[in-house]
Each structure stands twice: as C-alpha cells, then as structure tokens.
Amino acid sequence: KQEVTQIPAALSVPEGENLVLNCSFTDSAIYNLQWFRQDPGKGLTSLLLIQSSQREQTSGRLNASLDKSSGRSTLYIAASQPGDSATYLCAVRTYSSASKIIFGSGTRLSIRP
Amino acid sequence: NAGVTQTPKFQVLKTGQSMTLQCAQDMNHEYMSWYRQDPGMGLRLIHYSVGAGITDQGEVPNGYNVSRSTTEDFPLRLLSAAPSQTSVYFCASSYSAGANYGYTFGSGTRLTVV
Description:
Chain A has strands spanning 4-7, 10-14, 19-25, 30-38, 44-51, 56-59, 62-67, 72-77, 86-94, 102-103, 107-112. Chain A has 113 residues and is mostly beta strands. In chain A, strands 2, 4, 5, 9, 10 and 11 form a six-stranded mixed beta sheet that branches. Chain A has a five-stranded antiparallel beta sheet with strand order 1-3-8-7-6, with no helix packed on it. Chain A is globular, with a radius of gyration of 14 Å. Chain B has strands at residues 4-7, 10-13, 19-25, 31-38, 42-51, 54-57, 64-66, 76-78, 87-94, 104-105, 109-113. In chain B, strands 2, 4, 5, 6, 9, 10 and 11 form a seven-stranded mixed beta sheet that branches. Chain B has a four-stranded antiparallel beta sheet with strand order 1-3-8-7, with no helix packed on it. Classes of the chains: A mainly beta (113), B mainly beta (114). The A-B interface holds A 31-32, 34, 36, 41-46, 49, 51-53, 89, 91, 93, 98-106 and B 31, 33, 35, 42-43, 45, 48, 50, 56, 58, 90, 92, 94, 96-108, 110.
C-alpha cells in the first residue's frame, strides 16, 4: 500500500529565503508525482507534475525534483514571498492504483514579512 | 473555462437528511474521484470511477453512494447525513493512466451536518 509522508508539517521562514519542502513515498512504481498548493478555505491548485521518467520540473520560482529509487521528491521555492504562504501537498499516482492518487498530509508554509 | 465544477459551494444539513453533491467536468476525462478533507486527516478518497458505468470504493466509502451515467458527471449522494460527515468535499478528474496526466480539482463543497 502506497504511503506518502510530508515533513515538516509546518514551516515558518522570513521573506526572501530559499526553502525546500519534502515528500517521501513507499512504492517507487509510480506514473507521476504532483505538487499542489491550497490556500485556506480554497481548493487545490496544481503547481507541478513530474513524470516518472523525469528528474525535475520548473515553473517560475518553483522547482520540483524526483528521485524514484529513494522514494523522495522535493519542492524548492526560491526567494520566498508572503504570497507563498499556503499548504503544499504532494500526491503520487502508482502503477498498481492508476485510477487514483494518494496524498501526503501537507506542509503548512508561512512566510514572515 | 474548462475544469471541474462542484455545486453547491456550501450546504448545511440536519442529521438524517439526504442530499447530492454535484460534480461535472468538461475535459472528457475518464477518471473521476471524490475526496473529503478533514483537519488532521488530510485528503481521503471516498469513491472513484474509471469511466461511465464503472465505480469503486475508496478509503472511506461508508455513508456515501455514487453513480456515473455519463463521462461528464459524477454525483456523490449522502443517504442519511450524520455529523461525522461534516467536511470539505473535493471532486477531481484526470485522463486515464499515463505519466503525463495529472488530476484537476474542483473548488470544493463545504458541508456542515447539525
């Protein structure tokens, strides 16, 4: 059974810092991994999708990496801004359960002005 | 705009009442899912569908029914609402399995059962 873990559960950093959010998964037979952002009381917005054959994906100040062999993904946020404050969730899609995605519990990020 | 549309956005029910949460997508996605999100519990899969006429149970299916008569629609029915079903419900959809396909989520339905 796929299990997805995100550490830390919460993170507070001053504005301008570069930061890394972590996601680990137990079953490395994945199609892809998706990073989402969720603002309080809102829905999920897809940030990046990394295919199993890829090592990383970039979008603006965001960079996501994938290491299937170790069951890890990281989301790197450069030059953080108060507007980046949100909960970040990772989710994986595995070969054994391709019709659904399994979520981690998320990292709640707060950027201090 | 193409996407996943959920209605209603907010709902208050009394214990024992029934209701249907609507979900529609216009992207011709084969896969559709329902999740509930509770504080400290994360997102948990309720039911999912791989195509019209095909549904299956997820992690927390008790108290909910689904059907999928068309590719576009995937309603979630609460037959007899209970306070434990107070939650935020999200519908999501995707093309069938493939490495370059991700899930798109609706904006959610916030349900309170009193």
